[in-house]
Write a structure and sequence with these properties.
Helix content: 40-55%
Number of helices: 6
Number of domains: 3
Number of strands: 15
Strand content: 15-25%
Shape: rod-shaped
Largest sheet: 6 strands, antiparallel, barrel
Oligomer: single chain
Distance between the termini: 42 Å
Order of helices and strands: HEEEEEHHHHEEEEEHEEEEE
Radius of gyration: 46 Å
C-alpha cells in the first residue's frame, strides 16, 4: 500500500476501504426493527378489604391455581355462618311440616285420650245407675238429665281427641309445605351467595406466567375491582415490527420469522399472527433520518411459550423474515 507523507491513503486504497465499510454497514434486506409487547393480566378481587397476605413476589413464576393474595374475610365468614343457621332452621321447619307432629306431642294427645276414655266410662256407669234409681223413684229427673249430659260430654271429648290423634299423624297442608320448600330454596341460594363472597377474598392465579409486579402492600386497603397482581403469561408476549409497503404484500399470517436481541444466545422463532392492512407513520422506536417520511405496516408475531421467557416487554429486537 502506498501512503503519502501526510498520512492519506492513495486513491485506489481509499476506494477499496469505502466499499469494505459500506459492505459492513449494510443490513440484510429481510431484517426489520421492532420491539417486544407484553399483554398483562391484572388480577383483582370483586370484593374490597384489607390486604392480609401476598403470596408471591415480583419475578416469581407461577402456575394456574397458585395462591396470589388474600383479603380480610371476617365479614364474609360471619355472613356465611348466619346463612348456614338460617338454612338449618328452614330445613327443620320443612321437616316438621312434612312429617306431622313430633312423637312427644303425639304422646300428650294419647294421654289426654286415655283420660277422656276413662271419664266416659265413669259417666256411662253413673248414667246406668241413675236410670235405675229414677225408675225406682230414688232420684229426681233433674239428676238423671245431668247424668245423661255428662255421659254425652265425655263421649264427645273422646271423639275430639281421637280426631286430634289422627290429625297429628298427618303432614301439614300442601300450600304450607310448598311455601316452606320455596323458603328453603331461597335460604340455600343465600348461603351459596355468602360462600361465593367468602371465596373471593382468596384469589389464585388464573394463568401460568411471570409475576411482573405487585401493586399493593400487605395491610393496605384494596377497593373492589382494583388489580393487586400483574401477571405476564408467556403466550401474551408478542413481537411487533414494521415493514415497508414493498414487503407487506408478501407476508401472510402463519409465516415464520426469526427474532434476535441483545443478550439472546440464540435467535427465537416466531409465527406471524397479524399483518396490518393499514399503513402508518414510522414509529419513534425505529426513527431514523433515512426512513422518517416513509409509511410502514405493523406486523405481529408470536413466539412459542417455551421460548418466550428470553424476551422482555419493551425490548428492541431485529426480526428476520424467512
Amino acid at each position: 500500500m502506498h501512503v503519502l507523507r501526510d498520512g492519506a491513503l492513495t486513491g485506489t486504497a481509499a476506494a477499496a476501504a469505502l466499499v469494505l465499510l459500506a459492505g459492513c454497514a449494510q443490513k440484510p434486506t429481510n431484517t426489520y426493527q421492532g420491539y417486544i409487547e407484553g399483554k398483562f393480566v391484572y388480577v383483582a378481587s370483586p370484593q374490597s378489604g384489607r390486604l392480609d397476605q401476598v403470596n408471591v413476589a415480583r419475578g416469581d413464576t407461577v402456575t394456574a391455581g397458585h395462591p396470589l393474595f388474600a383479603l380480610d374475610d371476617e365479614p364474609e365468614a360471619s355472613e356465611e355462618r348466619t346463612a348456614e343457621q338460617v338454612l338449618h332452621s328452614s330445613e327443620s321447619r320443612l321437616n316438621d311440616l312434612e312429617t306431622g307432629k313430633r312423637p312427644a306431642e303425639v304422646d300428650v294427645t294419647r294421654a289426654q285420650l286415655a283420660r277422656a276414655v276413662a271419664d266416659k266410662k265413669q259417666a256411662d256407669e253413673i248414667l246406668v245407675s241413675d236410670e235405675a234409681q229414677f225408675k225406682a223413684g230414688g232420684i229426681a229427673q233433674t239428676e238423671l238429665i245431668n247424668a245423661q249430659a255428662a255421659a254425652e260430654t265425655s263421649a264427645a271429648k273422646v271423639r275430639e281427641l281421637e280426631a286430634d290423634l289422627a290429625v297429628d299423624a298427618l303432614p301439614a297442608r300442601e300450600q304450607q309445605i310448598k311455601a316452606q320448600t320455596n323458603q328453603v330454596a331461597a335460604d340455600r341460594a343465600s348461603l351459596a351467595n355468602a360462600q361465593w363472597h367468602l371465596k373471593q377474598k382468596q384469589i389464585a392465579s388464573p394463568r401460568n406466567g411471570l409475576i411482573f409486579d405487585t401493586l399493593y402492600r400487605q395491610g393496605e386497603w384494596v377497593a373492589a375491582g382494583n388489580p393487586v397482581i400483574q401477571i405476564l403469561p408467556p403466550e401474551n408476549l408478542e413481537i411487533r415490527f414494521f415493514v415497508p409497503e414493498t414487503v407487506v404484500g408478501g407476508l401472510r399470517v402463519g409465516g415464520s420469522v426469526r427474532v434476535a436481541c441483545d443478550g439472546c444466545a440464540n435467535a427465537v422463532a416466531a409465527t406471524i399472527s397479524f399483518v396490518s392492512p393499514q399503513s402508518e407513520y414510522t414509529p419513534p422506536v425505529i426513527y431514523s433520518n433515512e426512513n422518517r417520511s416513509k409509511l410502514v405496516y405493523i406486523v405481529i408475531a408470536n413466539p412459542a411459550p417455551q421460548t418466550a421467557a428470553t424476551l422482555h416487554p419493551g425490548q428492541p429486537v431485529e426480526v428476520t423474515v424467512q
